[in-house]
Amino acid sequence: MPLHSRHLLGLDGTKREDIQLILDTAVSFREVLDRPIKKVPTLQGKTIVNMFFESSTRTRLSFELAERRLSADVLGFQSVGSSVAKGETLKDTARNIEAMKVDMVVMRHAASGAPHYLSRVIDANVLNAGDGSHEHPTQALLDMYTIRERLGRLEGLHVCLLGDVAHSRVARSNIYGLLTMGAQVSVCGPATMIPRDIERLGVNVYHHLDDVLPQIDVLNVLRIQLERDAGRFFPTVREYHNSYGVTRQRLEKAGRIVTILHPGPINRDVEISADVADSEHSVILQQVLNGVAVRMAVLYLLATAS
Amino acid sequence: MQILLKGGRLIDPPTGRDEVVDMLLVDGRIERLGKDLPVSQAQIVDCQTRVVAPGFLDMHVHLREPGFEHKETVLTGVQAAAAGGFTGVCCMPNTNPPIDDESVIRFIQSRARVALNGAIDVYPIAAVTMGRKGEHLGNLAELAEAGAVGFSDDGDPVADAEIMRRALEYAAMFDRPIIQHAQDVSMTRGSVMHEGIVATSLGLQGWPSIAEEIVVARDIMLTEYTHGRYHVAHASTAGTIELIRRAKSRSLPVTCEVTPHHFSLTDEIVRSFDTNAKMNPPLRPREDVEAIREGLRDGTIDAIATDHAPHSFDEKEVEFQAAPFGIVGLETALGLTLTELFHTNLLSLARIIELLAVNPRRVLRLPDVAIAEGATANLTIFDPAQEWVVDPTRFRSKSRNTPFAGRRLKGRPIGVINNGQAFWND
Predict the structure, then answer these.
(1) DSSP secondary-structure letter at A234?
(2) Which residues of chain B have a Cβ shorter than 8 Å from any chain A Cβ?
(3) Which residues on B lie below 8 Å from A134 (Cβ)?
(4) How buried is residue A87: exposed, middle or buried, by Cβ count under 10 Å (0-12/13-18/19+)?
(5) What is the pLDDT of residues B26-71, one digit of tens each?
(6) What is the pLDDT of residues B69-95, one digit of tens each?
(7) How confident is the model at residue B216 (pLDDT cuts 50, 70, 90)?
(8) Residue in B196, B203, B320 nearest the CB of A172
(9) φ, ψ for residue A105, nearest 5 deg
(10) What CATH number does residue A97 fall under?
(11) What is the Cα–Cα distance from B2 to B10, expressed in whole angstroms?
(12) Total number of domains in chain A
């Protein structure tokens, strides 16, 4: 059974059976990653370009590894040093790359909706690797994979997204995906970082971490953009940490075992304390490994969907 | 040139006329007005299913010349106006150079005189402040003398309360309105669409309604204090409409206009990331659209104006947040107005003509169009029942940036007659 779409632009509107299919397919690829030879010929002869118009290390490497494990031909760039810096439009860049006969485009872009636009102007499969504050579907898929791996299910779990929900594409994709899969979703953060009307998406809103911790199974801790946000959305890093920092003491007080996720990179002792990040309830490194398997699954399914 | 408009329904709100009547035009003048005029050598225009009205004036148009001729020129702009049923337009000053000097007014006037042989009246609106920078009051007396019918820094607000106060005081001496683009820029940095559930869903930077309303509220207080005259451009929120309603109930000299897109569309269409859904002020939710419709019905809103904002294809063919704000409006305004407001039984044709023809002139202290024997003909003829489909490739405007492509509309401009010239849509 193939996916319903030949692009993965986001999880908003993505069908439950498609998410299920991706997560199930990822299980087989996850097994591949434990073999001595971690490479399969699945995408031999396919060419994939990774267009990163925003700097990224983790996601870019994860995609690249997934693509190489599938034996695809891989090329890529970050906007620094490409023609984008010279003022070329997204459309021209993409069309030029497509003229080289690539099969799939993986794109990270600072503008919400950029991959949606791209999918209308080029023929290749488009895979969104993060667009502005909008969506980061493979991150949410690997989060869901990791939760399912740890807790055995998604349906009925209560997951909380903590921090800068307003500017987080990870948060949005998690909300869409988790709600579709039957989980209960809450968001928690300072009022300045909770976007207007978000409760209309079907999530609960909390402003005090201690109120929500005793109720949840999973806490997905969002990264704080220190440079951008201090002074505008919260006063100081110290105050943020005091109010929203995930500490062992807080978790113990809640009296409940909570699985901790973080999309990385971590600001240690800002949004999460070092001992929690490294604790037995943290699945942060599993997320990284699972990310490769989930991206292999998505690439494989998109390549065979078209 | 003799034209006989045969059997049209003349609706002229200032005189209260609403009757089927023939009209004989000779050399651009209304020669005779009466029942069953004898057919002479005149060109006969069958107006039996049509309405004959005082010529429409769009008080909010960006003609883009000088400076942005790749988007629009005075010529293509007035061609679009004629096709859209307008015999007059007011052009906004965010040109390059801006309309902050009488030489620019004279340049535009010289272009307008030759465009379509001067058929379309072009009334410049001059900048409130020098360079539209919001810092230094412009030479408003000189500009008014040269022909500016109002003042606005449109595209940007007059943000500074002191400048706004002085502008209202100063412009009142020659009875010109200050036309405010109401936007608190400190609340809209990086904003690209209305702040609400759709922006939250899409991860786009929101633009709260109150960013408009707090400026309007402040300006109404300034208007009361200064006895100036204040007009809100493209009012877009329920709160703005309510503020104006209250100001009017206290008889303050406050007026406003709304655009066809703000009473026809909601921010839901941004979900497509179509850059033709991006405008300033942004599209609002259903509640605001309903409030605008109620304001049109109860008389709070004075005028319908398009905020015709042409941009070239390539400028709009980019990511949503990188695209410029604005859509073209001249050629869809009447169709949208009739479809959304008349055929829904919200407004009468007479009220629609007030909004499109009568009130814009009154806000700007231009004389009413006279429809009487001996007067110069300044007329818009339209068919309220004709259905058509918006096809941007047929626009006369140089730009095609519209979210209404493919939309079926009921009601269509047939022709305009003004300054001795007549133009008919095929």
Answers:
(1) B
(2) 195-197, 199-206, 208, 272-273, 314, 317-322
(3) 202-204
(4) exposed
(5) 999 999 999 988 877 889 999 999 999 999 999 999 999 999 999 9
(6) 999 999 999 999 999 999 999 999 999
(7) very high
(8) B203
(9) -120, 125
(10) 3.40.50.1370
(11) 19
(12) 2
Q: Are residues A259 and A156 in the same domain?
A: yes
Which residues of B are annotated as catalytic?
Answer: 307
- pLDDT tens digits along B344-403: 999 999 999 999 999 999 999 999 999 999 999 999 999 999 999 999 999 999 999 999
Comparing B175 with A85, the larger pLDDT belongs to B175
CATH 2.30.40.10 range(s) for chain B read: 2-51+374-424
Tell whether the model's pLDDT for residue B228 goes beyond 50: yes
Whole-angstrom distance, CA of residue B250 vs CA of residue B244: 10
Q: Which residues of B fall within a CB distance of 8 Å from A117? A: 273, 318-320
Separation between Cα atoms, residue A300 and residue A2, nearest integer Å: 10
Considering the domain architecture, whether residues A146 and A275 belong to the same structural domain is answered as yes
Instruction: Based on the fold, state whether residues A109 and A191 are members of the same structural domain.
Output: no
Residues lower than pLDDT 50 in chain A: 81
β-pairing verdict for B421-424 and B408-418: antiparallel
Print the domain residue range for A163: 137-285
A251 found inside a domain:
yes
With contacts defined as CB-CB under 8 Å, which chain A residues touch B322? 111
Question: What is residue A2's DSSP assignment?
Answer: -
CATH code for residues B2-51+374-424: 2.30.40.10
Contact (CB<8Å) B320/A117: yes
- Collapse the DSSP code of B24 into the 3-class scheme (helix H, G, I; strand E, B; otherwise coil) and give the result: strand
Closest chain A residue to the Cα of B193, Cα to Cα: A112
Residues of chain B with CATH 3.20.20.140: 55-363
Contact flag A196-B318 (C-beta cutoff 8 Å):
no
Instruction: State the Cα–Cα distance between residues A174 and B69, nearest whole angstrom.
Output: 46
Q: In terms of CA atoms, which chain B residue is nearest residue A113? A: B273
Closest-approach residue (CA) in chain B for A169: B203
Class of domain B55-363 (CATH, top level): alpha beta
Interface test with B, best of A117, A118, A233 (most B CBs within 10 A): A117
Residue A9 maps to a domain? no
Give the HSE-up count for residue B283: Cα atoms under 13 Å, Cβ half-sphere. 25
